[in-house]
């Protein structure tokens, strides 16, 4: 099947697809469309966003759906609202010439009453996030008795977001006779487990770049200790002028901290993470797509909803645990035939993690030196000329009368002056700054116990906080995010405790007493024995708390179904 016209899809679908400009099917479509059209087995497809997977599962199902029935036949579950809207939009496009087919998107963060109203129109297709689908099941607003096809899209992401129970409930609530198609970028243990329990004799397809690393991406790593990391990042940004990049962080708090640091230092940057409201996230994504900002600091999950082709760099501000996530993140650059650069910032004690990523992915990641002030100025000068040579047209009327008498200067002197003028601030900033490149990877740190390492990290954090408070204007962390109420003193972490990020904060009128109550409620199954509770930090938009390690799973299992003043609660282990 090299052309859509060679597939057995109906003329209505082919016409819609043709209008979208699809000519030949992508790899996943070539494998999936004939399978779904002709086979009754379940399917596991390893494929990432950007491979054309939405059309791969939708087109053959749309071809077989019964448009005379007004019952839900096709259910797609996906992790985020953005993806949900994207899939629903794609399906609307594919069904442009199928007037009797209706689809509805249902997702959290939006009026459930409106969604219940649109369900009254009896769509045959539902695209939803697991939490909202469960809500609607509980309200008896969904009849799943005629479901024929269930798609779990980005199953790995849904599981890592903690939707395991919801997925299992939905799979149980849908008829046994359905066909289940599981799409996932990675085959994590959880995905394997859920496939084993809920899929029958699945056919397996693997496409795209999971182990197929893009050759046009150059991978570099830089060693920087915790307290130098943001400064190292600044230098890397300054030495790559004209970049359009995503900086990946591990937690929401880290994402916000890095974005605040960049914004305070004058960069056109912003943060994208799950603690922002939907409207804020939409605005940030729009600004980035329009290039009103050229640096986006994001968590892996939040960045999923964003599809941009022209990224010059991907920065791993923190390394992911899963090597496949590293490949996935990096693959966001080097698209559409362009070259890309993937930059990793590595703490000295992370050599083992880096080695693991290198050995699993077979990617060559070369060590580079954090640029000095001199390197940065050179790169900036080159950037200015690169921009100058890109100017091919006049944007305003220019005539010699606009230029004062410059006959006292040679051409070289004028260029020199212009560059000095243009780069003055940067040059002053880097004058006499310390070289950050002397730090080396150390296996010694790796071999130390986790406890010592944690203490070291906390010590570094303490120093970093102190430094942020320094008198220098350019380093003055104006936001109090991340400092907590411990007065900036380094604190040793108790290895019997687990620290959690919690999505509510002062803005939600959360008090320490509330957190204590929430923890007690979420960990009350061991009868009268209560979880030991450690430090609680309530920040503006979110909080942190520590509890006894043995209660971790119980807390995580319960908290996502609890509410505080009507708001959903989310906790995740903080590192
Ligand atoms: P997806 O992986 O489903 O997110 O799709 C990635 C992008 O590829 C979307 O913008 C689709 O509209 C587009 N796309 C999907 N299939 C094709 C195709 N066969 N030819 C051209 N573009 C496609």
From TrEMBL:
**Coiled-coil stretches noted in the UniProt entry, renumbered to this chain:** none
Question: Recorded GO terms, molecular function?
Answer: helicase activity
| Source organism superkingdom | Bacteria
Q: Which CDD domains match?
A: DEADc (cd00268), RRM_DbpA (cd12252), SF2_C_DEAD (cd18787)
Q: Where is the Helicase C-terminal domain?
A: 232-377
Q: Which residues form the Helicase ATP-binding domain?
A: 34-205
Keyword vocabulary terms for this entry: ATP-binding, Helicase, Hydrolase, Nucleotide-binding
Output the InterPro entries linked to this UniProt entry. Answer: DbpA/CsdA_RNA-bd_dom, DEAD/DEAH_box_helicase_dom, DEAD/DEAH_RhlB, DEAD_box_RNA_helicase, Helicase_ATP-bd, Helicase_C-like, Nucleotide-bd_a/b_plait_sf, P-loop_NTPase
Residue ranges annotated as compositionally biased, kind Basic and acidic residues, are 438-497
Pfam families, sorted: DbpA (PF03880), DEAD (PF00270), Helicase_C (PF00271)
Which PANTHER family does its entry note? ATP-DEPENDENT RNA HELICASE RHLE, ATP-DEPENDENT RNA HELICASE RHLE-RELATED
As for family, the record states: Belongs to the DEAD box helicase family.
Descriptive protein name = DEAD/DEAH box helicase
């Amino acid at each position: 099947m090299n052309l859509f016209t060679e597939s057995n899809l109906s003329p209505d679908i082919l016409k819609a697809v043709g209008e979208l400009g699809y000519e030949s099917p992508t790899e996943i479509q070539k494998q999936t469309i004939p399978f779904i059209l002709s086979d009754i087995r379940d399917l596991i497809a390893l494929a990432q966003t950007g491979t054309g997977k939405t059309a791969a599962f939708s087109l053959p199902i749309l071809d077989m759906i019964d448009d005379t029935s007004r019952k839900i036949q096709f259910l797609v579950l996906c992790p985020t609202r953005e993806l949900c809207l994207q899939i629903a939009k794609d399906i609307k496009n594919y069904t442009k010439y199928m007037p009797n087919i209706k689809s509805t998107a249902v997702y959290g963060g939006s009026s459930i009453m409106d969604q219940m109203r649109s369900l009254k129109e009896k769509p045959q297709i539902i695209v939803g996030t697991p939490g909202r689908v469960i809500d609607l099941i509980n309200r008896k607003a969904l009849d799943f008795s005629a479901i024929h096809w269930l798609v779990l899209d980005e199953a790995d992401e849904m599981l890592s977001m903690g939707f395991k129970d919801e997925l299992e409930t939905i799979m149980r609530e849908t008829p046994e006779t359905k066909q289940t198609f599981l799409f996932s970028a990675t085959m994590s243990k959880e995905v394997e487990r859920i496939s084993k329990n809920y899929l029958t004799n699945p056919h397996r397809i693997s496409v795209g770049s999971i182990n197929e690393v893009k050759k046009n991406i150059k991978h570099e790593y830089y060693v920087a200790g915790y307290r130098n990391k943001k400064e190292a990042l600044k230098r890397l940004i300054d030495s790559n002028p004209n970049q359009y990049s995503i900086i990946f962080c591990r937690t929401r708090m880290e994402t916000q901290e890095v974005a605040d640091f960049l914004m305070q230092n004058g960069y056109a940057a912003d943060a994208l993470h799950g603690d922002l409201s939907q409207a804020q996230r939409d605005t940030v994504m729009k600004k980035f797509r329009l290039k009103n900002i050229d640096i986006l600091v994001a968590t892996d999950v939040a960045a999923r909803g964003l599809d941009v082709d022209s990224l010059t760099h991907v920065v791993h501000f923190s390394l992911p645990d899963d090597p496949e996530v590293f490949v996935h993140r990096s693959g966001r650059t080097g698209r559409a035939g362009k070259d890309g650069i993937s930059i990793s910032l590595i703490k000295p004690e992370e050599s083992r993690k880096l080695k693991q990523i290198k050995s699993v992915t077979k990617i060559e990641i070369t060590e580079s030196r954090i640029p000095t002030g001199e390197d940065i100025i050179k790169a900036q000068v080159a950037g200015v000329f690169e921009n100058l040579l890109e100017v091919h047209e006049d944007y305003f009327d220019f005539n010699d009368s606009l230029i004062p008498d410059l006959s006292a200067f040679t051409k070289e002197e004028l260029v020199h002056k212009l560059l000095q003028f243009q780069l003055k601030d940067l040059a002053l900033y880097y004058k006499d700054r310390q070289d950050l490149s002397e730090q080396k990877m150390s296996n010694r740190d790796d071999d130390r116990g986790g406890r010592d390492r944690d203490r070291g990290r906390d010590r570094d954090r303490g120093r970093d906080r102190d430094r942020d408070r320094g008198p220098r204007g350019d380093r003055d962390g104006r936001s109090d995010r991340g400092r907590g109420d411990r007065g900036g003193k380094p604190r040793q972490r108790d290895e019997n405790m687990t620290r959690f990020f919690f999505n509510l904060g002062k803005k939600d009128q959360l008090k320490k007493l509330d957190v204590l109550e929430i923890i007690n409620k979420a960990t009350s199954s061991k009868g009268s024995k209560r979880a030991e509770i450690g430090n609680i930090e309530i920040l503006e938009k979110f909080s942190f708390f520590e509890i006894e390690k043995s209660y971790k799973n119980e807390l995580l299992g319960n908290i996502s179904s609890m509410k505080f003043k009507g708001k959903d609660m989310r906790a995740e282990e903080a590192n």
